Structure formats: C-alpha cells, structure tokens
Amino acid sequence: MEYEDGYLQAQRPKYDCLLFDLDDTLYPLSSGIASACGKNIKDYMVEKLGIAEGKITALGDLLYKNYGTTMAGLRAIGYGFDYDEYHSFVHGRLPYENLKPDPVLRHLLMTLPIRKIIFTNADKAHALKCLSKLGLEDCFEGIICFETLNPTHKCTVSDDEDDMEFVGSRADDSAANNRNPKIFDIVGHFAEPSPSTELPKTPIICKPSEAAIERALKMADINPQRTLFFDDSVRNIQAGKRVGLHTVLVGKSQRVKGADYALESIHNIKEALPELWEAEIKSEVGYSGNVAVQASVTA
C-alpha cells in the first residue's frame, strides 16, 4: 500500500494552476504599452490633480517604489479621485493597436491541461481589451484585477459561467472623492527622514503586497504550493515566493533572487517547462513497474 501511495504521488502533476500577470508578461515590453501608460499617469497627475510638472518624476518614483503602483501611492498621501476616471484616463489612450493576435501563445495556452488565471493590478476593461487584441480572451478561467481586489460591496460570483471575472464590483471611490486637504510630503519625508513620521497607508490592495497575493489565492481557491506564478516584476516574483508560490520571471534573461525560472519570452514556456504538457500524457500511461523521478527543468 505504501508503495502504491508513493507511485500515485509520483504520477500526480506538480502544478494545479498557472497564474499569469498580463502587462509585459503575455506581450513584450517593446509593444510600447508600458511607456504610454507611464506618460498617461504623469499627465493625469498634472492635469487632474494639479501636481507641478517638475515634481512628477521624483514623486512618481517614490510612490511606485513604496506602494506598488502610483495610483495606490497617490491615494495614500491624500489625493482623492474616482478610480474609474483614473483608469479611463490612464488606459483609455493606450496604443492597443500595437497588440496583435498571438496564435503561437494561444496554441500553447490552449494545449495546457492546467487551470490558467490572469492576475493583474490593472482594471478589468484594460485586461479584457489586451486579451482581445492578443486573441487570448477565451484562454483563461478568470481574471483577478483591480476591481476584484478592491470591491465596493459584498462580492458576488457572476451568474455568467463564461465571465472572465471571479467577482464583480466597482472599487470603492466614495472616500476618494473627498480629497484630503493635507497632502503628505513624501518627497520631503525621504529627503529629511524623521523617526517619528511614518508613511501613510494606502486603501488600495495591489501587487507586490503579500496581502494582495494572498487575497487573490483565496479568491480563486488556489494552492500556492501547486501553482506557477508568471510575472515580469522582480518585486512581484519575490512577494509571490514569500507566500509559497513557485515563480517564473518573464522578460529577463538572467535568474534573479527568488525566481524558480527565468524566461526571455512567454513563448519559451514549453522549452523551459515541458512537464506542464507531460502531465496529461503521464496520466494516460500505465504502470511500468518503475517510479520515475522528475528532475527540475530550468531555463
């Protein structure tokens, strides 16, 4: 009986779920989407929030570094705005025409016999637009996005089984519409640190917060120990490792601390991780009398 249990365990696929970041992971940085998004964020800060243009770069860098996203940082230091308006401004003018159908990636994803889920800090509209342009809209079980991590009210599961979202609701922007008259000077805080002053917390949940990753895992009923997490951000990868995920850094040619695998492109997934496809084949092969030991494949 013990031998049989060991055999069954050896035959069990290593992973139950693949968790994919979207931007600069399922399509390359060279698309120009990221740079255009960065420009739109700066324009929003100047045009909508009245921040002096000369302060944008230093402020944006500190917000991103300390809060995960500029949006989360802006809310933390006291700026109030409508979340939907922000996303519409930042994503509404992106060059989505630069994204083309990717039949190679589509084939790879469709032939994977494992759960596949999108996990992005972006809003649902942006995620759906990108997936549609790439021709990947039906390749994933669901999308975990800004709205699902930051709901306004009790989350409800969609009645539409084909809906790409796990839970649906708009992010709570009622408090955001009441701008705090006192803006925390984060640039001054780091220029002249004071032990008695702490950084304000953000009401927004997003990567690379471990709380955001843990919420996503719970939301989609994912076992981190049996999940591969693909992301282009080193910070997100390291946070994923801390909560128990197996990780794949996409878009970098060198392994970094924390990543189990490194792929130059998402298209290299089958070369680096052939066992993802072999799992289905092994389940159909009868007992041969020997228990094979799978070696770890790295790229």
TrEMBL record:
InterPro entries hit by this protein: HAD-like_sf, HAD-SF_hydro_IA, HAD_sf, Pyr-5-nucltdase
Residues in the signal sequence: none
CDD domains linked to this entry: HAD_5NT
Pfam families named among the record's database cross-references: Hydrolase (PF00702)
Alphabetical list of PANTHER family matching this protein: HALOACID DEHALOGENASE-LIKE HYDROLASE, HALOACID DEHALOGENASE-LIKE HYDROLASE (HAD) SUPERFAMILY PROTEIN
Name this protein carries in UniProt: Uncharacterized protein
